[in-house]
Amino acid sequence: MAERGILTVVSGFSGAGKGTLMKELLRNYDGYALSISATTRSPREGEEHGREYFFLEREAFEELIETDRLLEHARYQDNYYGTPRDYVEEMLEQGFDVILEIEVQGGAQIREKVPDALLIFVTPPSAEELRRRLVSRGTETPEKIRGRLLRAEEEAEYMPLYDAILVNDDLDTCVRELHSLIRNAHMRSSSRAPFISQMKQELKELNQGGY
Ligand code: 5GP
What we know:
Elements: E1 7-12, H1 18-28, E2 32-34, E3 37-39, E4 53-55, H2 58-66, E5 70-76, E6 79-84, H3 85-93, E7 97-101, H4 104-113, E8 118-123, H5 127-136, H6 142-155, E9 164-167, H7 171-185, H8 193-209
Parallel strand pairs: 1-7, 1-8, 2-7, 3-4, 8-9
Antiparallel strand pairs: 3-6, 5-6
The structure holds guanosine-5'-monophosphate (5GP).
The site of guanosine-5'-monophosphate has 13 residues, from strand 5, strand 6 and helix 4.
């Protein structure tokens, strides 16, 4: 049986480059599965149901909550977002490291519910760099940029909850660091329960049988 995968939460400020980071992680390394969230927000141009998100009506989303089919969920900017439980469980069981790219309230819920999850917060090197990246997208009005920076200040309150703060300065370096954080998590004793049992059993047999 494959060793169980690590549940990994990736959160970060809007403009930190999480999307590109996830894409590059999956392109460069095997063994990862990206969870597809459910949301009540409308699809943006180019987004597809079942690829970026499961786009649901509010009633359908509430039904998922009531039937306990979400691992976590949160309201963000007047919409619901949540992680379907079954897919995550199945992929972890198969040994995949499952990535949830979710906002900080969801991260806090995972911290509570899944004590051995790995929580990673992605940030640009400075607030000024965050502002610069938001401006250089060219798609945001000054008011929207102000809104995102104000929200970033609130989100920063959650940073101490995370296991690691990953500074996204150079993309390639950041992808390697993310991968290595997850590889290291596989060595934690909480991930090595089967190995620990096996070692204990072998020692017992060795000591009983004489050598
Ligand atoms: P967007 O609407 O821009 O795709 O996403 C808005 C925010 O919702 C992002 O911070 C994204 O990480 C977060 N998000 C996406 N899916 C989920 C989810 O399943 N649960 C939670 N809590 N946040 C999510």
